[in-house]
Amino acid sequence: MSTRFTTWLSMLFIAVLFCALVLLNNQLLSAYRVDLTENKVYSLSQGSQQILTEIDEPLNLYFFFSDKAAKNMTTLRNYAARVQSLLEEYAERSNGKIKLHILDPEPFSEKEDKADQFGLTAANIGTAGEAVYLGLGATNALDDQQVIAFFDPQQERFLEYEISKLIYQLVNPKQVKVTLLTDLPVGGGQNPMTGEFEQPWTFYTQLQQLYVVDKIASDATELPKGTDVLVVAHPKNLSEELLFSIDQYVMQGGRALIFVDPHNESDQMSMLAGAGMGANSSNLARLFDAWGVDFQPQEVLLDAYAGLDVRTQTGDVARHFGFVGFSSKELNAKDVTTSNLDLINGASFGVFKKSAKSGLRWTNLIHSTENSDLIDSAQYAQTREPLALSQAYKSDSKQYVLATRLTGNVKSAFEQPPEGIQRETFEQRTKDMNVILVGDTDLLSDRFWVQQSSFFGQTITTPFANNGDFVTNAVENLAGSNALISIRSRGTFARPFDEVEQLKLVAEQKFREQEKILQQQLDETESQLTQLQEQQGEGGALVISPQQQKAIDDFMEQKIQIRKSLREVRHQLDKDIENLGNLIKFVNIVIAPLLLVLLLMGARRLLRSRYNPNKSFSVAKEGQA
């Protein structure tokens, strides 16, 4: 009886101790957490914490979630709990500067009116068709207002960035002025090829959300006053006055982000003009020459390993060596603009080379893989089929610089102001140059990095690459603010199967060799068949000699053998990939658990050998005896 009483008493003591520890943890240790998730999704990044330290006035965050209306929506409720938990983390880390309000905007309530005042999106997905809110409204002491209309669960990995950006905009109401110099249709409008109205490019919309953007065309004669960051995209036929204005802007310490291209494939007007116009290139030759930069617009990069799969005109899927995607291995992990990015897609990249007279410091941001080659831009512009590019490709086992940062001391590209230009000051040299050069402009186009979909009347853009993040990071860095750059989850977390990609690359090279042989044989066959068709006897009947028939039969047999060899190459590729997969499965399913069991058994045996009560008791008895 006493044993049972002792057992119940022990269980009661454990339950009370458990409740006490939970209460102690919630009251005293809630601020101390250990996030063991791989991407630290339950803790704030260093960038978010930096933004919180810069708050100099109280902020009010109003989190609206229709808790009752979403009663049976398990997935949405779980995501809402995730959002609320992160918002509470912001409030906890703000040292009282952020006051969080949790509101359930029931129909016809004052809370619903407040949600409408913020302009939040009401999604009609409730059990009875009622509106469901899942958004955030925020205000500062000056009644400035920022909102997140609806937290899209599909963009969960960008959740922290969106909230931090909202707080950053409230803390820094005076925005940076960005001047965008381009003739590309980044502002949207009517497509000259289809006649349809197109939305503004996503990178342009993102810049407008963060900064005051002043867009000018190539016919301008000078840069707007007060420009904090200059973004140049696809410069063509710039006047000497505008070139001088850019030069002096840089000489006076201005920051610039410049995109040039040996062939822009996203310019609708160029596509409308036709392929016969040749490559659609851009350059800043005069400035580049003064900066010690060698950029040849006649050369386009082909990269076999970084090539993207595209759909051909026949409906097949093939790897395009000119349409490339560069992973974190090709991005500079030490520079703040590219350190957190995973993938940048583009097309027809140009390469930068450092001339002997360059005295600037080069910090390369993007480089190609070693499976690269350069092709004439005019030939590239006229080649539509990926197969033709792959046949023209010859790897030189060399990496090329595709984007770089130039810093240091440099001389002006002008000896004196151009004739007719009156300047109060003329800077001949700067010691504080900070310019980023990118050898592609197609990466700015939406088709290379975002997908668009309609969500309750709103256009939702879902990134599948980090092109927009790269542009925003570069502008933020050049503007002098790195807080938002270091926030995690700004891009996709793609993890390519490197070994599989290498196997595919080797097999594709074998395929190209076999395809060349097959194509030559097919051409010869067509020529022979054409000659045979011209050999007609009396009455228009086709006459084929026994020798010709034997030649055709021999060729058909050879053709079958070549196709068989192609199938064998494909089979070998699939076999190698399958063997690799089986090896990984065997390690994960058999080897890893077996090693764990053996490790636990060894630990158990070691502990038993160190402390064995029976052994101690027997030794004691022997001593007594």
From TrEMBL:
Domain of life of the source: Bacteria
Residues of the DUF7088 domain: 38-136
Transmembrane segments: 583-603
Keyword line: Coiled coil, Membrane, Transmembrane, Transmembrane helix
Keyword ATP-binding: no
Keyword Nucleotide-binding: no
Name used for this protein in its record: ABC-type uncharacterized transport system domain-containing protein
Organism, scientific name: Paraglaciecola agarilytica NO2
Pfam assignment, any one: ABC_transp_aux
Stretches assigned to the ABC-type uncharacterised transport system domain: 178-474
Residue stretches in coiled coil: 508-535
UniProt xrefs under InterPro entries: ABC_transp_unknown, DUF7088
